[in-house]
């Protein structure tokens, strides 16, 4: 069972890097886990035919590398900031280049910002439905006080009040990942 932790932001000085380390340390105690850093997958703005209609027909090597990476996961934890009350464009752009790689897998979110990234997370849940994913109820929301404190120390313990939420998310994600992994070979389309 492989869980991928996807960094949804790529800008200089990004907070997602701190979150990725914490989430990876937690999840990797329970399952195989890897960080998929979108900085390692620079892509042009999406400009191809719909990937849903041409599964795994990759337009170029960069898309192929992203697609084959996502393909091997059984579930995803997307780490997302909120940019102008929406999800980061770099994250949506990466998603738009792919499709079936995500299908019938569970997805959950760790968000941050003034309202813990809640608006971006809610929007991403809607996007996930279109990808025929199972977006989960449990998410982790990091509020500004924790963000400010986390910027002042490299100690992961700064996130410890959020550990129970992350554990709930992990527990739920692993349940869905196992269930859907067993069911995926029998999918109807
Ligand atoms: C372009 C931009 C727009 C932002 N808009 C919001 C917003 O709508 N809501 C919010 O809570 N924070 C917003 N912020 C602040 C982010 O929460 C904060 O910069 C956070 O660190 C972004 O994550 P990142 O560092 O991983 O990019 C915005 C930041 C940027 C750069």
UniProtKB/TrEMBL annotation:
Species lineage: Bacteria, Bacillati, Actinomycetota, Actinomycetes, Micromonosporales
Protein name: FMN reductase
Gene Ontology cellular component annotations, sorted alphabetically: cytosol
Gene3D superfamilies: 3.40.50.360
Domain of life of the native organism: Bacteria
Gene Ontology terms for molecular function: FMN binding; oxidoreductase activity
Domain named NADPH-dependent FMN reductase-like: residues: 1-140
